[in-house]
UniProtKB/TrEMBL annotation:
GO terms for biological process: GCN2-mediated signaling; regulation of translational initiation. It holds the Pfam family RWD. InterPro entries: Impact, RWD_dom, UBQ-conjugating_enzyme/RWD. Residues 162-183 have a biased composition (Basic and acidic residues). Residues 23-147 form the RWD domain. Residues 162-194 are annotated as: Disordered. This is RWD domain-containing protein. GO terms for cellular component: cytoplasm.
């Protein structure tokens, strides 16, 4: 914890509660690991603007965690801001630093939810004189997991719908046959043309000579229809 205490300033008369904060950070490190808790670097590129960044007496640090299994490959960063009155009177402020959670861009709903961790009915209750960053982080993780899984489900559902639509609207494709099958087909003709019972009256299928390309044969077929409903009967 020496690097964090040095970063915060070992002698800060504006923060007489620094020992309490450092003690809480020790606990967080023991839970999340040494690399999870980092001093805040305001010059890092790609981070969103920090809310109330001008408050010089506010202590700030970052928490970087991975989502629980089975999403442990997805990570997120949270900025923790401790106002001068924390923990005696005021709760910490949590802000999502990550612009993406997995492959999904963070929207205003998730960003605002994290920002209101201690000031909303669905957030965490704050008790004066009680450190609560851990409770806030656990609440944020739960909401981020739900948000991420909801988008995974929506993505999967969308892919299934698109695949179903493609299957229902894919036009008839040319049938690929082996050279042997093509020769047999050229000699005997397509059997479907010899079964008029399955074709609408007046429909005739025309078949072109097979085109042999290496080990594949391409046979073209065409017919004229007078109504779209006949398409599904051919």
């Amino acid at each position: 914890m020496d690097d964090l205490s040095t970063f915060f300033g070992a002698d800060r008369p504006d923060r007489p509660d620094l020992d309490v904060i450092l003690s809480e950070l020790d606990v967080l490190r023991s839970i999340y690991g040494d690399e999870a808790i980092r001093p805040w670097r305001p010059s890092e590129e790609g981070q969103p603007p920090v809310v109330n960044a001008a408050a010089s007496s506010t202590v700030r640090y970052e928490v970087h965690l991975s989502l629980p299994s089975p999403h442990e490959d997805v990570s997120l960063g949270v900025l923790v801001s401790l106002p001068p009155t924390y923990p005696a009177e005021s709760p910490p402020q949590m802000q999502l630093l990550s612009r993406y959670v997995g492959a999904f861009g963070v929207d205003s709903e998730l960003f605002g939810s994290v920002l209101r961790t201690f000031v909303s009915a669905n957030g965490v209750d704050f008790t004066p004189d009680t450190v609560c960053v851990f409770d806030g982080m656990e609440s944020i993780m739960e909401r981020c997991v739900k948000w991420y899984e909801d988008r995974l489900s929506a993505q999967t559902a969308g892919e299934l719908l698109r695949e179903d639509a493609r299957e229902r609207h894919t036009p008839l494709s040319h049938k690929i046959e082996s050279p042997h099958d093509a020769e047999d087909s050229a000699e005997t003709g397509d059997r479907s043309t010899n079964v008029p019972a399955v074709l609408p009256e007046g429909i005739e299928i025309f078949q072109a000579e097979p085109i042999i390309d290496r080990k594949s044969a391409f046979v073209g077929r065409a017919c004229r229809i007078s109504d779209p409903s006949q398409f599904w009967l051919i």
